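Deliverable D4.2, example record:
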Amino acid sequence: MPSPYAARLAQIEWWHVAQGLDADGWARLGALLTRRECDTIAAWFERDARFRSTVDMARHGFGRGTYRYFAEPVPAPIAALRRALYARLAPIANAWAEALGEAARYPPRFVAFQAQCRAAGQTRPTPLLLRYRPGDYNCLHQDRYGDIAFPLQVVVPLSRPGADYSGGELLFVEQRPRGQSRGSAVTPAAGEGVAFANAARPLRGRRGFYRVQLRHGVSVLTAGERLALGIIFHDAR
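Output generated by the structure prediction step:
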């Protein structure tokens, strides 16, 4: 039976998403999860059996807050959303690889890409839940877990800005060669997906495309509690 996520993604104007990613390195996807789905997934954060690993960000110098990687089997709704998103983003990832002159190409179906990860020894699932409380934040970073890395990822906040929390904006900072860094602060609604470059993206210059680096993070939460679902497509070693 087709997942409801495939139908939701079919309503998105993907040409517009591609334009946003090409221009800025990130793009809004619109509502991916319902309010009930957000609440259900957020409640999983306290269920230890669902996770393979828990990270205290302050202990590792990543910021402040906690995130937890799902264990296998990844919960069916998240696995289905991950598969559906990958199928839509793979053509954009391939266009980026071609523009940058990279040999890597991404198969149209997620199961084939996941097989590539496993063949390279990347077998640990990477979808995760993140939780921030007052004073918490996430330092600017990139999520690369091995030799194989899909160039795009998606975050879906599960909490309502202005109602459940304040502050905690999603941050993107782009470093262009021989130029100043450019930053963006984004406040997605609960259930709204945002796609963005995992590390590098192509930018057209006078002599063709060149590579720019993008890092992402979360600004300091000033009140309440913010939970989010992170969907990374490559698995980890």
